[in-house]
Write a structure and sequence with these properties.
The protein is α/β, with parallel strands linked by helices. The protein has 8 helices and 9 strands. InterPro entries: RNA_MeTrfase_C_dom, tRNA_m1G_MTases_N.
Length: 194
């Protein structure tokens, strides 16, 4: 397999999201998600990493953190954090992200959903990697916070990735860990061909 050349975007969805009771809520932003996923996104040449949260207070929090690391004392203190945060953007809803990507690329993005549950229409990482190589369109990988993406949001996606399973039967990764593993599986240089 050759290197992936597709334009890939990420979206961390905070609304609509399920809580543990199955209710639809808006989750709060976690500082670690901003830093760690931005760093991984920059490492894997993601075009933009969107925080999707409809609450103005949460958007302002993300802006303050981003501004500190891209233009404040933080940018002077840790330069590579400035580079990582250069891909971070904020949006109120998924439709806004899709519109921004279409505006930027001239094409509607194909949506890739992630979830810890398995669905009948799931696609393997190997086959998704082939799609990323062969289809000349932008892709948007969306990750859910809380207890996952709503069924409606998943139904609107073009692809549904298999859950991440390790060697054991435990399957409860943080979204930061899952995002990094998925990016590596889909976008890494094909080290196994060396």
């Amino acid at each position: 397999m050759s290197k992936i050349e597709a334009d890939v975007y990420l979206g961390l969805v905070h609304n609509p999201i399920y809580n543990k009771l199955g209710e639809v809520i808006t989750t709060t932003v976690t500082n670690y998600d901003l830093h760690d996923i931005a760093r991984a996104a920059k490492t894997y040449d993601i075009k933009k990493y969107y925080i999707i949260n409809n609450l103005k207070s949460q958007q302002e929090l993300v802006e303050r953190v981003r501004d500190y690391w891209t233009g404040g004392r933080g940018a002077d203190y840790v330069y590579n954090r400035h580079q990582a945060f250069s891909v971070l953007e904020i949006a109120s809803e998924l439709e806004e992200v899709k519109s921004k990507i279409e505006e930027e690329t001239g094409q509607k993005p194909l949506l890739i959903a992630t979830d810890a549950r398995e669905y009948p229409n799931t696609i393997s990482y190997k086959n998704m990697r082939k799609e990323l190589q062969q289809i000349d369109r932008p892709f948007l990988i969306i990750y859910g916070t809380g207890y996952g993406l709503t069924k409606e949001m998943i139904a609107d996606c073009d692809y549904m990735l298999y859950p991440i399973w390790g060697r054991g039967d435990f399957n409860h990764l943080s979204v930061r860990s899952a995002a990094s593993i998925i990016m590596d599986r889909l976008l890494s240089d094909p080290w196994w061909e060396a």
